User: Fold this.
Amino acid sequence: MIDGSTLLVCFDGLRRDRATTDRMPNLAGFMAAGADMINARSVFPSETRVASTSTVTGCAPGLHGLVANQFINRQVVPDGLFNTASHEALGRADALGVLIDRESLGQRLARAGKSFAVVSTATPGATFMMSYGAARVGQPVFSVHEGVGTPVLMEAAAACFGPIPGAATPNTARIDYATRVLTDIVYPMHRPDLAILWMSDPDITSHGFGIDAPETIAAQRGCDEAFGRILDFWKTGDGPENIVVMSDHGHITGSAKVDLAAALPEYAASLSPGTFSGLYLPDPTPQTIAATVERLAAEPFCGLIFVDMPGAPEASVPGALPASVMGGGHARSAPVSFTLRTSPTARIGEPETCLFAGGIEPGGGMHGGLTRGELSTVLAGGGPAFRAGFVSETPCWLPDIGPTLLTILGLPTDGTSGRALAETLAGGNAPAPAVTRRALHASIADHEQGVEQWLVDGRPITDFGWSTGRDGVPQ
Assistant:
């Protein structure tokens, strides 16, 4: 046993309100027994590679610089989209010095002489980002995708367990394989001070079938059974001292596809399409940005609009909010970004749907925007570092995870923008921070939008966002 050692387990795409006792009894029991952060939220855009980078840097996207799952970066991809699902594309950006601007957890631990390991069934790009810099300093990485993991660990896994199972929905076979790699190889061989296990479900099954489909429920149960085996291993005393569970974002239901390039032909060359989309204007002046916002606001598919004004990150134009108030706004950000229209509901518990720009079929799960279902995440901790049976109502978000892990490990948190969640930790009896609420609003013609945020000791955390379409109905 290593003092303060911690395992971070991520259930990709798991909404807080779907982490129920009937679907995931092991997870629900663990959360109830430890410190449960019931107002945990994702970052914006609520996309996996953005989220994994925010988790391991302890910073919002506007600081770390991986601003979307895909975006335009002509230094990396001169004639197309920089898709961060590709670890080769990420490697090119890293070699050019235009990938991220903050240290990762792996780099911090290596610098402090501590050990770090990653075991992942996520995409090559997500695994690359959560393990950023690890392979260069000899930290072990396992991936179910060829060419991403470190050779020694990959060879040990193959020798012990045979070939990696094929991808499937549910992806339970791969998750089970990765769990065995963690408990049977990584801990006995490497004794990591910090390890990450990233489960690709329920995200990928939700994309294919929907958030409440039988297949997705089966995927959740498969993840939970794997987590149950981790809990059994934990109780032997041969693994980590503490466990933190998280999800990176939630899901809502995709209702219909929008062809954004056809809908915005004059912007096709500067468009990065998605549930979260960016327009990389060739001449981003206040005038061209304002004209673009006005054009978007007139479209029935448009949800919330944000701008990153050159040289003035807090400034905006009619109909938009500054990206900086969302934790965005970076040199690699689009001057104008927007979400797609969501269903007319703003009440907790009602079904939420959205338009989408590809990648799934109608009825499949989708994320990237600002609805409650997309931003709602799981976050809880158990072990001697955490208060037992404690429910924290204090809002928190993904950038708070890194500083909290560093604090448990006795390492400094300088360079992070998140907050160590001291009120959830054992022994210190830290008071909960001051929490207030604010509402941000913007409008132009018939288009209105708003964002509801908490201010936690003055730091904004977004609860949800809303917009009205041309018909004036909340979207």
Remarks:
- DSSP finds 14 helices and 23 strands in the chain.
- The radius of gyration is 21 Å.
- Residues 214-235 form the longest helix (22 residues).
